[in-house]
Amino acid sequence: MKLPDTTDTIAAQATPPGAGALAIIRISGPAAFSAAASFLSPAPLRPEHAAARLLSVKDKGVLIDRAVVVFFRGPASYTGDDTVEITCHGSPYIIRTLLNLAVKNGARPAEPGEFTLRAFLNGKMDLAQAEAVGELIAAGTAGAHRAAITQAEGRLSEEINSIRTGLVRLLAQIEARLDDSYEEIPPLEIKAFARTASASGKKAASLASGFEAGRGIREGLKVVITGAPNSGKSSLLNALLGYDRAMVSRQAGTTRDTLEASLDIDGFSVLFTDTAGLNTRAASVLEREGIKRAEKAISIADAIVLVKDASIKETSSDRRTETEAARLALKSARLIRVLNKSDLPSKRALCSAGCLKVSAKTGSGLPGLKAALIAEQRKIFRDGAQAVVTSARHFAALSDAARELSRLEALMKKKKPPLELAAEHLRAALDALGSISGETAPEEILESIFKNFCVGK
Ligand SMILES: Nc1nc2c(ncn2[C@@H]2O[C@H](COP(=O)(O)OP(=O)(O)OP(=O)(O)O)[C@@H](O)[C@H]2O)c(=O)[nH]1
Ligand SMILES: [Mg+2]
Could you give the 3-state DSSP secondary structure of residue 409? Predict the structure, then answer.
């Protein structure tokens, strides 16, 4: 596959499909104004930039709709090309007719994300900002929105660019020496050089380290509730959600299948999965299947809430569940120990450090549990609007850059560091960082990014 042609004119509906009060059709490209003029009346021959006009849409002289039309003269448009935005009534018939008229008069239907792709190719935004536009549209919580808008405004790009500027300077220092066959330039100050390289590497690594929490902010934090049978896992889920999502009973083994529900906690999305207890002695086929599903959920979770029943003594099932959960969980996953049923007389030694006492019945301790779950997310946003790495692509690029820079640092510790090799590490780090803003991103990357956009964006 190849990237679509960027020299022609594209048209698409920018609003969601289906009927609505209003819909927006966008036409962008060199023939955008002439295409629109051919079906708008009175035909706007020299349209004013960014001014709204009420015009008639006509198909062979027949009135289709009256629409508000705004003309943006390139490069002062979203895409950078001449663009027309037509706000018409949101009838599928009107929309279809308008798009047909645009196509008959010189436009072609746009591919997904093609308007934003053009904006990127025309230098209106860099790749990280273009990706953030997609995330902004998809953001469902305050946290995801904040991460996306910060990135769309260019904060991540600024941070990356500041690292890159430093590296370009280092590379220039090396290249000057490599070209300097008459040895006119004083030798490289290795210590200062290594210090700057190391600081840049740390910056890249620190941006990358926010990724796990950043991904949680964008996609929602995956939290699994596990624990011995009857410890109150389902009751806890219901109490957290504030409604009866899961069945609860005094019988052990009530929950078999995994059960999901999401909750917005202080602007962050949390996806809870209630599971069957990891009772390895489970007899029935159904129970075993339930355990398999629980294990799978644990293995991909960002955090695991381990529930124990405070009203009974520690059981072997408690201990087995804890070992199993620790074995299955991702290394990065947080384990949160919860002593439930704290409204009943306790049969346990005091809650150990990091353990939370709660009662699904009375709701006590739940605010603390919620706060513990989103603590990481909060930490990232503590210092105001800062760049958060939410994309696996950016994370990989930053990690690559950090790795190259740490190799460079190690190299500079040698007695006579080979400058050619040092330059190679610098170039590799610069390439990795450049792929984030798009300067060094190959076509396949662009393609895979923009195909996930909706048509019309
Ligand atoms: N007093 C009291 N009872 C609770 C509390 N939480 C749960 N229970 C009771 O404990 C029993 C088991 O609750 P469930 O929520 O079904 O427990 P579970 O861990 O989901 O059980 P399984 O799905 O069978 O593994 C029910 O009778 C609940 O009413 C609590 O905080 N206090
Ligand atoms: Mg249950």
Answer: helix
pLDDT at 456: 87
Per-residue pLDDT tens for 213-263? 899 999 999 999 999 999 999 999 999 999 999 999 998 889 999 999 999
- CA 222 to ligand 1 centroid distance, Å: 22
pLDDT over threshold 60, residue 1: no
First to last CA, the chain: 20
334 lines ligand 1 (CB under 6 A): no
What is the CA(309)–ligand 1 centre distance, in A? 8
Cβ-contact 432, 403 below 8 angstroms: no
What domains sit in the chain, N to C, each tagged with a CATH number?
A: 9-126 (3.30.1360.120), 133-210+388-438 (1.20.120.430), 218-381 (3.40.50.300)
In the structure, what pLDDT confidence band is assigned to residue 385 with cuts at 50, 70 and 90?
low
Average pLDDT over residues 195-199: 94
How far is Cα of residue 108 from the mean position of the Cα atoms in its chain? Answer: 31
Ion ligand 2: protein residues whose beta carbon lies under 5 Å: 233-234, 254-255
CA 276 / ligand 2 centre spacing (Å): 6
Is the shortest distance between the CB of 235 and ligand 1 below 6 Å? yes
Q: Show contacts of 293-296: CB within 8 Å, 24+ apart.
A: 293/257, 293/258, 294/224, 294/226, 294/258, 295/324, 295/328, 296/258
Verify whether ligand 1 is closer than 6 Å to residue 258 (CB atom).
Answer: no
Instruction: Report the SS3 class of residue 352.
Output: coil
Q: What stretch of H or E contains 205? A: helix 190-209
Q: CB of 306 closer than 6 A to ligand 1?
A: no
CB atoms within 10 A of CB 78: 21
For residue 2, what pLDDT is reported? 73
Structure confidence by residue, pLDDT tens digits, 145-182? 999 999 999 999 999 999 999 999 999 999 998 887 88
Rounded to two decimals, what is the model's pTM?
A: 0.86
* H-state helical runs in 9-126: 32-37, 92-104, 114-121
- Average per-residue pLDDT in the chain? 93
Is there an atom of ligand 1 within 6 Å of 287 CB? no
Instruction: For residue 220, report the phi and psi dihedrals to the nearest 5 degrees.
Output: 100, 140
Ligand 1 center to 254 CA (angstroms): 9
Q: What's the CA gap between 230 and 314, in Å, rounded? A: 13
